[in-house]
Design a protein that fits this description.
Blueprint lengths: L8 H16 L2 E2 H8 L3 H13 L3 E4 L2 E4 L2 H11 L2 H17 L2 E8 L2 E9 L13 E3 L13 H6 L8
Antiparallel strand pairs: 1-3, 2-3, 4-5, 5-6
Helix pairs in contact: 1-3, 2-3
């Protein structure tokens, strides 16, 4: 559970609830309250608020995340015109190499998957757009750059993939 130092406790609790549902999937009010250390009434108020804002779906006494988060993720990804250019490069490189190609950016000291495309010989991996991983966990061969012009003009060789 999050320590609430210098933050708004109710907002932290709402995010704790969302993160709990992301990690645990569909869960009952009692389970959420117990696991997060909230009273049932506190958990209920947070869940009802999140449900009224369409971030959570209540279903037969259990709660799960809604698909509303897809809108936020896709909006965030599309707001950068550079990402469309990168998507085309990722798709072309995957087709050329028949391997899995991924594009990631750094945010808050973590690597975030933005796009990925798999070729015919790609090895399956537990990655998806939006997944956040520690930067030190990124394998050799993945390209990070905050200089779009350099990245877009650089010709990648099979050794850099």
């Amino acid at each position: 559970m999050t320590e609430y130092n210098g933050t708004i406790a109710s907002v932290d609790k709402a995010f704790d609830t969302l993160e709990y549902l992301r990690e645990n999937g569909k869960s009952s009010l009692s389970t959420i309250a117990t696991d997060l250390g909230f009273t049932k009434s506190t958990a209920h108020r947070h869940l009802k608020t999140l449900e009224s804002r369409e971030y959570v779906v209540g279903d037969d006494g259990s709660y799960r995340l809604s698909l509303r988060f897809l809108d936020f993720g896709e909006f965030t990804r599309r707001r950068h015109t550079e990402y469309q250019l990168i998507r085309e490069k990722v798709e072309a490189l995957a087709e050329q190499t028949n391997e899995r190609v991924q594009f990631m950016v750094e945010e808050h000291g973590r690597a975030v998957y933005v796009f990925q495309q798999s070729g015919q010989h790609a090895v399956e991996a537990d990655t998806y757009p939006g997944k956040r991983v520690p930067i030190h966990a990124v394998r050799r061969g993945l390209l990070f750059s905050l200089r779009w012009d350099l990245m877009l003009s650089t010709r990648l060789s099979p050794d850099t993939v």
